[in-house]
Amino acid sequence: MSGDEIIAQVRKPNSDDNNSESDEDEVIEAYKISNSVAFEYFAKGLMWSEQQTDSDSTELMLLKQLRDRAAKRRQSCFRQSKLPFKPM
To answer: With the CA atoms of 51, 56, 60 and 63 taken in that order, what torsion angle do they form, in degrees rounded to the nearest 10?
Structure first.
């Protein structure tokens, strides 16, 4: 599967889901995960996946891409956007 096919598969709603659950049973936590935490999770997931005997090269490539994207975003947060002004 290509990356686009994987994304389409994940976004597609499951037809097996039971829609009879009430809203009270469903708890949705909405919080923002930082770029640093995302990088750490993807790096650990990649290490775990590499250790598995049934790992697929496509899965590894996807995890590496996600890890690298999180690393770039994490690094961009550390960059200073402007030099501080020092009056003479």
So the answer is: -110
Per-residue pLDDT tens digits for 14-57: 655 555 555 555 666 678 888 899 999 999 999 999 999 998 89
Provide the residue type at 50 as one letter: E
CA distance 40 to 33: 11
As given in the structure block, the two tokens for residue 41 are 């999770």
What is the distance between the alpha carbons of residues 37 and 74, in angstroms, rounded to a whole number?
Answer: 9
As a whole number of angstroms, the longest Cα–Cα distance in the chain is: 70
CA distances from 11 to 6, 29, 50 (A): 9, 19, 25
**Domain coordinates in residue numbering, the chain:** 56-83
CA 85 to each of CA 50, 80, 82: distance values in angstroms, whole numbers, following the listed order: 48, 13, 9
* Spatial distance between the Cα atoms of 25 and 21, rounded to a whole number of angstroms: 7
